[in-house]
Write a structure and sequence with these properties.
With 412 residues, this protein is an alpha/beta fold. It has a domain at 30-262: Alpha-Beta Barrel (TIM Barrel). Helix content is 27%, strand content 20%. It is built from 12 helices and 19 strands. It has helices spanning 14-21, 30-46, 84-92, 107-116, 125-133, 158-167, 185-202, 224-227, 231-244, 259-262, 296-299, 364-367, and strands at residues 25-28, 53-58, 77-81, 98-100, 121-122, 139-144, 153-154, 172-177, 208-210, 252-255, 266-271, 277-278, 283-286, 306-309, 321-327, 342-345, 353-357, 378-381, 387-391. The strands form 4 sheets. Strands 2, 3, 4, 5, 6, 7, 8, 9 and 10 form a 9-stranded parallel sheet that branches. The radius of gyration is 24 Å and the shape is globular. The structure holds pyridoxal-5'-phosphate. Pyridoxal-5'-phosphate (PLP) binds at residues 58, 61, 80, 101, 178, 181, 212-215, 256-260, 361. Its cofactor is pyridoxal 5'-phosphate. This is Diaminopimelate decarboxylase. It comes from Streptomyces luteolifulvus. Keywords: Pyridoxal phosphate.
Length: 412
Amino acid sequence: MTALSESWLSGINLKLIADQVGTPVFIYSEGQFRKNLARVRKAADDAGLGERVEFYIPFFPNSNPHHLAPLKELDGFGVLVQLPSEYRLLRAHGFEKFIVSPGHVSNEEISFWDSTRCPTFLASLNEVAHSLATQAPSISVRVDSLDSGKPGVKYGELEQLSALLQEYDRELDCVEVYCGSGNSLDDMVRTVEEMFEVFQKYFPTARGINFAGGHGFDYDAHAEADKHFDWSLYFRRLADAAQRMGIPEDVKFLFEPARDVLADTGALLMSVERSVITTPVSSIVVTDGCRMLMPSAQLRNRGHNTAFLDQDMREIVNEQGISAAVRGRTILRNDYLLPGEVHVPEGVDATSYMVILDTGAYCATQHMEFLNVPPAAEVLVSSDGSMDLITAAGDELDKWRNLLEEKQPVRS
Ligand SMILES: Cc1ncc(COP(=O)(O)O)c(C=O)c1O
């Protein structure tokens, strides 16, 4: 079994896509997305938490409303957004259930979110003070459990936070904590227990606790079962801790998984442009991709599974071959799509294709700079002191400028 043969991608007419759409192209599977959502939901049900959990899938790691469409109709699922533009785009696509984790923002933006009545996790005492002063409909807070540079009220500020709430005679609606990506399941359960202590001590009347994302995904594993986070064990241990630590039954538990439910819903199909080039320095397989299509692989040192296909899209499997780096199509010295090298089987040439698996999260969006912030304007100051606007700032939907309002069928 190869990584490709275990994937939903092996059942897809890749030839049709390559012929009609061209390469490089990201391909997403609705079926796999639904399967991942169902798996997470079932794990919660099996642990007896079914009624208590809500999932808000972050928009920014994939940012495509068509691909995230199943979230519109599934009970207990919604979307996590961070920018007003994301919210407006998703509303236009018929999404209705949101939470907001905006980072640090202006008073105007906080008031905007308050007007939407979406639970909004404020990231500092100063921002909470604004919401209290403007009588926001509900107050939710993000806590930085790592006491790091991440937005969030620090542990050392929790006394002050509860004093502030008391001053306005308000209660916290929900508290969010980001457990950090790359943590082990044990570490994540420890953070859960820490948050339960915080809940009991400072906010015992809160309606919910939001454990955010960071649920791991193994990009090196071949089999689906080995790739995913062990939600069953996690929820069992969470349920056990909640009971042991006396968390009231009506307190909801929220989660914001991205990688675990999105990564293996996507694949990147590229053309191989030449036979492997071997020099005294290295061997490279030249593709029409670019590291800018998925910079997270290099940035996070993620060695995704790959496969090579012949011109009829049959997988080329051959132990004979050569180890080579996967080169993108630009002059940039380090335009390599993946960290390290991959096995390029004998038979790969300029008529072949290459796929990189598990590119459903933090890949196509990275090409759009991931956080969906439009590009800044450029002004040129001339020698005589006059100034000209030479690039207009991107508008609110700049990051989605080629997004289609309606899906267009791919067919021959
Ligand atoms: C607030 C928040 N929630 C959820 C996530 C998703 O994390 P993951 O992909 O680790 O599940 C992120 C990732 O940056 C985040 O910042």
